[in-house]
Structures are given as C-alpha cells and as structure tokens.
Amino acid sequence: MKIAFVSNYINHHQIPMANVLYRKLEGGYRFIQTEPMEEERIRQGWNSDTGNIPYLLVYEKEEEECKKWIAESDIVLFGGCEDESYIKPRLDAGKIVLRYTERLYREGQWKAVSPRGLWKKYHDHTKYNNAPVYLLCAGGYVADDFAIIRAYKGKRFKWGYFTEFEPFPKEERVAAKKHEITHIMWAGRFMELKHSMDVLNALLLLKEKGIPFRMQFVGDGECREEMQAFIREHKMEDMVSLPGFLKPEQVREEMKKANIFLFTSDYREGWGAVVNESMNAGCALVVSHAVGSAPFLIEHEKNGLIYKSRDVKELAACLEKLCTDGEFREKLGDGAYNTIESLWNPECAGSRLLALCEELLQGKMHFESSGPLSEAKVIKQRKMYEYLIGKKHEK
Fold first, then answer.
1. Which residues lie below 8 Å from residue 278, measured CB to CB, with a gap of 6+?
2. Does domain 3-163+345-379 have CATH number 3.40.50?
3. Which of 260, 264, 246, 251 is nearest to 213 (CA)?
4. Fewest beta carbons within 10 Å, which of 31, 89, 142, 267?
5. Distance of alpha carbon 13 from alpha carbon 41, whole angstroms
6. For residues 330 and 313, what is the distance between their CA atoms, to the nearest angstrom?
7. Looking at the whole model, is its pTM more than 0.85?
8. What is the pLDDT of residue 298?
9. How, if at all, do strands 156-158 and 183-189 pair?
C-alpha cells in the first residue's frame, strides 16, 4: 500500500506520525510539502528536526514526483492547504481521499451565511458526499462546522495531532513535580486569541487569597508588554516569569517539572498540540472549552479540568482547587498521562489509520469505539461547554 500526505509544510508535531507510517509501510509513504514554513515558526524552532527526512517531497523542487505520488497512491491524506488544485484531479478521478482538517469557521459560524463561501464549500466538499472522500476531524468543533454545509455525514472521524510519546513513569513524574510551591505553566505565542491576560487576572485572584504559586509563561508575542506591565503593577515579579521562547524539546522538559498546565485559547485555536505534550508530561491540565483538542482529549475531572472560555473566575476556581489539593492534582496528571500512553499517541493512531485504509480499499469502513478514528459526532458549538461539563465524555 502507498500513502501520500499533502500539507503546507512538515513540522515537529507531524513528524512522529509520519515516521510511524513510513516505517509500517516500509517506505511506501511520502509527505508532500506545498509551501515554505513561516519565519515566525522557524524562530520558534519548529524546523529544528525537519532535516534529512527520507519521505519528504517539496512540491516546488520535485513537482513531477509529487504529482505522481498524489495520482498513484492508494490513499492520499490532504490537509493544511488552501489551494485545492493539488487534490482536485484525484477527487475528480474518484480515488480515495482522507481530508485532514481543523475548523471551517473558527472566526464564527455566522460566516456560513455567505453565498460565495457556501458555493466554494459545495465544490470543495459537499459535491463529494457520495465519493470515497472521508473527513479526519482535527478538533471537536470540526464535525459541527461540516454539518452546516451537509458534508461527509457518516464519514467523520476523530483525529488530531499526535506528538512524540515520551515514556515518563509514575515514580519519575512524582520526583520531577515535587515542589514546595505549586508550579504552573503556559506555553505559546502571546497573542489575543490565546488570552494570556486571562491567566494573569486569575492568578491575581489567587494572590489576593494568599494561595502560593510559581507561574511560567513560555513564549513571546504582541501581548508581552501588557503582561509585563500587569506583573509590575500587581507586584507579582517573584511569582511570575517570562523566559521567552524555548526550543520544543526544552518546552517539554519544563512541562515535566510543572504541576499544572494551562491552555486558554478561544475558538480560533484549531487543536493545540501543547495539550498532548503536557498530558504526556503528567500535568494536571486546565483547558478552555473552546480549544479544538478539548472535546477529544480532556475528560472533565478525570484527566483534566475544562472551564468556560474567557471566564476568569471559573479559571481561578480551577487553579485554586489544583493548588490546594495535591491528591486531586496528581490524579488528573496520572489520567492525562494514561490517555496519551494508551490512545492518543502516534503508534496507536498510525496502526488504526492503516487498518482503516485497508478497509477502505476493500470498500468497507468502521469506527473505533474510542479515541482516534472513533466517530466524530456533531455537538453544537453553543452546547459544547454544557456537554463537556455535564455529561459523560465520549472519546
């Protein structure tokens, strides 16, 4: 079997899965990169481990070879490209395609009323409802977005990003996270959609209650000056640090030492691979319900806590609970680690993907009972918070 994955560019979040597929297919896999990586991502170290990859094809340098793989592969995964021309000939030929995508309407589902947008969505997606085209939903809101345009009903799978799994046994986790004061961590770009200021406002509530903590914001960006001013104004310099960007491997080492990890983005965050990484590190997570990965990865009060996006008081309440209840914090961290170890890792996902591909080639299909490639059910965006907090989570 030959499989190709067409995407904008490869990065350290995609390499682990690509390595699994290349190994299991004994070389019958190619990652086709259609554009260069952005300079900002390069500055963050995203290209630090992308050299000398045997399965990487760059479209602008190897166009004919790329076209051959797209046309002749048994299965093609397509995601991360706005330009449909790469995949259009294969779609029109009726060959199997797995679309790997984040949200259609991350800026707001109201955009679905645009006649021009609906016309394009019909030609890119809905017209292929009866064709062998399937949807790998990289986030809990993807199925709802595609339901709006009536695309891929009965063919929507839970998927996502699968970061490298690093074994981190219980005794090592306990030793690494043993601190006199609770260590909290946040990592990402300091930009409006990630709401780092919500964290500072929540931490101020903890400070006013006399709850001790050490907070580390790893990253940089447009909100840095505002954050620094807030820290100075409220005399939090001895509690909060901003070390700047770290290399991906350094970020993961810091996660291993953190007791709590926060991810506070809004609906514009399609997935959030640091959620996978911090779960692997055994952190107790507090995650905004609007984050794409939250509905798939986080089971409220079992392997993390979910709070309503932008609700600073609820965020502070989650932090207070975790800072003052070490046993509960450890329980959530263990649950997070077990979720990644057992299900949401490249080896599990890669094996399941190849099994699905074999079925599709035989004209069959099934959903896994939980985790990657289980059914991505439609949960309305406006009801997701209540669903995640008030009902048993469906993996």
1. 185, 187, 255, 258, 261, 263, 285, 336
2. yes
3. 260
4. 89
5. 12
6. 23
7. yes
8. 98
9. unpaired
